[in-house]
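G.,

No rush on this.
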Amino acid sequence: MTTATFRFYAGLNDFLPGHRRQRALICQLHDRPAVKDPIEALGVPHTEVGLVVANGAPVDFSYQVASGDRIAVYPEFTSINPGDAGRLRPLPPEAFILDVHLGRLARRLRLLGIDASYRNDLDDHEIARRGATEQRIVLTRDRKLLCHGVIVHGAWLRATDPERQVVEVLARFSPRLSPFSRCLACNGTLSEPEAADVAMRLPASVRESGVRVSHCGDCDRVYWPGTHHARLQERVRRYLQQIDG
């Protein structure tokens, strides 16, 4: 039997029951497990962990816990670079995959030009597999999904409102933004088509106005600035303002 002390810091306490938060946890472990196993057994998905320190030295998830160890577990900090010795995973990509409950968030991320893959017919195993093979960050409100071992990058969203979820994603990952450059329906990249190719699909008022038209090569949808465009622009401005704040 192995006895070790674990202490979780900052936002990682969100995953612990109230009586275990902000305090040292003495754990009885069988044999000498890799440190990743007791961390997740205590309720914290490995994707939320940015740094593990054993007895004062940074370690990776394969570190085998020994009796008497004092393990400090920290979340991802965007302002702190742990260096190569303390890095648990590569730097995150700028592409995302969202679970089946986050369709409204997916459309908002696409509005900002963020690569946000979403389908409402994927189970957890397929989301985890695609997140790993396509090098995407898994976004979810399901903590258990993030415990799939193949997932390298992921985040459990604290907010339930999609507007607040957008700000949460932007603040944590700081992806590059290119508003109005992606298809809201399928996530494809928009381009400017030849006028003759889409002319017959546009209302006469749009054809005569000379406004910029965008086309999705993946699903063949056509976009132009309609009456709702100003509202979407205001939404983008609001997101950016909240991040700046």
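When you get to it, here's the other one too:
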Amino acid sequence: MGDEVPWLLVGGRVVAGVVLVVLLARTHRSSRVLMTALVLVLSGALGNLYDNLFRTPPEGRPFGMVRDFVHVYFERWEYHFPTFNVADSCITVGAVLLVLSSFFGSERKSEHDLAAAAGAATDPES
């Protein structure tokens, strides 16, 4: 997939890396699920980008190919799951965690904000 637009894929990985680093810098340290998700997606994007930039490209291609090395085969059904790599797994797990943090992260943040507000209201020096 995407073989016909390699510059777009590599450029997208670079942009994703920059955006994810900015998001990580702006994420509160107490948001562990969100930070884990961002780090996983960032590591997957950088892993694939590394392969693109530092592997020897096949003839006629501007970038190296991403290494795919995990092949799952279900003999009983004669089904070959699409081959993937660790970077792809990191991106997938990170994306799932991002979705989960969007559902559950706001409650934790609201509780944290309420606790901070209650602490400031009871602080005699404020």
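The beta strands are 73-74, 79-80. The first strand starts at residue 73 and ends at 74.

Enjoy the weekend,
O.
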